[in-house]
Design a protein that fits this description.
This protein is α+β, with helices and mostly antiparallel strands. Helices cover about 20% and strands about 25% of the residues. The chain is built from three helices and twelve strands.
């Protein structure tokens, strides 16, 4: 009985410790005003005025306000060959439909939170991915539905898109709460396509994959091991490792990035 109690206390400490750390030391503004929050570009995307090739990028950034203590918000940006601008595909909790595809900067800060670029695909691979993405967008099953926890949310959409588009060789960070929401399904490929996962409504589940490593989902919070980073995955924080997490593998020849 004592061992069980100790085990439960350790588990609760791990689940709560990450979000508490992010609250105290993560630099997240829980009192921010979305109207004045930073939305500037970080120069992480190829300049469309200098880039004729097709480009696809996958990003995430800390969610706005207190949600950033627990999770990130993910999105996908596309630029067809010869296009003069990017289109940002994402799900938000305001407005309907929840899924939007709008012209905009792919690497803008998400209401004060700097984005992390997980993968860039250029050239023919990006062209094929864009064709699939544009064909799939009308088929997203939760276009008019949003729920921050446990999903479907922004991360549910990006994870779904990654599963459906083989060219998107990328995994989402463990802090992307909602990526494990499978709707009525229980078993599926991991978003990267390199493993399998089981999930009960995004609240309880597990995943094993070459990119995802090993993940245990408890109430949407993920504990796990990231072999590629030689690290561990903690709720709220994401991966803590000796190496940088290998979420994706950029493919295709891209010209120099645009200046910030």
């Amino acid at each position: 009985m004592l061992k069980l109690l100790v085990g439960v206390l350790i588990l609760l400490s791990l689940l709560a410790g990450g979000p508490l750390y992010m609250w105290g030391f993560g630099g997240i503004d829980t009192r921010g005003d979305w109207r004045s929050a930073d939305r500037s570009s970080l120069g992480l995307a190829p300049d469309p005025s200098q880039t004729h090739q097709a480009v696809v990028q996958v990003y995430s950034a800390r969610a706005f306000n207190w949600r950033g203590i627990f999770a990130v918000h993910a999105w996908v940006a596309t630029k067809p060959e010869g296009a003069a601008h990017y289109t940002v595909h994402q799900v938000t909790g305001w407005g309907r439909p929840a899924l939007t595809s709008r012209i905009g900067g792919p690497d803008r800060a998400w209401f004060g939170s700097a984005p992390t670029l997980h993968a860039t695909f250029c050239g023919s691979k990006a062209e094929r991915a864009i064709e699939r993405i544009e064909a799939l967008l009308p088929e997203y099953p939760y276009r008019d539905h949003y729920r921050a926890w446990p999903g479907p949310n922004s991360n549910t959409f990006v994870a779904w898109l990654i599963r459906e588009v083989p060219e998107l060789d990328v995994a989402l960070p463990s802090s992307a709460i909602g990526k494990d929401y499978l709707g009525d399904s229980v078993l599926a490929r991991t978003p990267s396509g390199t493993g399998m996962q089981v999930s009960l409504g995004g609240v309880l589940g597990a995943a094993v994959g070459l990119r995802e490593g090993v993940e245990l989902n408890l109430a949407g919070l993920v504990l796990g091991i990231d072999p590629t980073a030689l690290g561990i995955k903690l709720p709220g924080i994401g991966t803590l490792g000796l190496l940088a997490p290998a979420y994706g593998r950029s493919q295709g020849e891209c010209p120099p990035m645009a200046a910030g």
